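Query structure, 184 tokens:
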């Protein structure tokens, strides 16, 4: 996966926050979760994903058998982006790793919405990132249909450490369905 150029300061801040509990909610022991799993095959046609996965995603609002009423689709299974596509001009949908390779300026957005050292959960993403999605509406483009994104867990007790970036440029409009779900 492509790395963000100014990552050393982010990594240092993340290491310092690696044990910092969140301000709200239960303190979860991250060491009880696996951080790696086998890579999944890429599917050009999301309708070819396994039936059980598609059924779970459909329950979360993600339609894969007929994407004609979606501006784009992103699916990540465990740690692997298995599908990304855009059906509308001016709308970009891709793995964040591909976006980092394509756009030098993307690092300017890295860790801007949430600080890398907010807590151990954000820190863990910087220290062990497993991709994520990049969705962007170019200036002046408005989605006719929503973009859909699903982060799907097929493996039990897996930490899916993703960094997602959504950018709606000037005078654009972007509607997104995020339907995250598991196989269990």
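Result returned for the query:
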């Amino acid at each position: 996966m492509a790395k963000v150029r100014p990552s050393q300061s982010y990594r240092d801040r993340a290491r310092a926050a690696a044990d910092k509990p969140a301000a709200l909610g239960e303190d979860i022991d991250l060491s009880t979760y696996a951080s790696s799993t086998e890579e999944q095959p890429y599917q050009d046609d999301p309708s070819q994903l396994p039936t059980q996965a598609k059924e779970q995603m459909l329950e979360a609002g993600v339609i894969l058998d007929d994407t004609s009423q979606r501006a784009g689709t992103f699916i990540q299974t465990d740690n692997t982006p298995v599908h990304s596509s855009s059906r509308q001009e001016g709308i970009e949908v891709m793995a964040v790793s591909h976006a980092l390779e394509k756009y030098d300026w993307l690092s300017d957005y890295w860790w801007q919405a949430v600080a890398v050292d907010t807590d151990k959960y954000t820190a863990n993403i910087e220290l062990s990132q497993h991709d994520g999605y990049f969705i962007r509406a170019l200036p002046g483009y408005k989605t006719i249909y929503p973009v859909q994104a699903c982060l799907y867990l097929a493996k039990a007790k897996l930490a899916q450490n993703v960094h997602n970036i959504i950018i709606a440029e000037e005078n654009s409009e972007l509607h997104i369905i995020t339907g995250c779900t598991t196989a269990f």
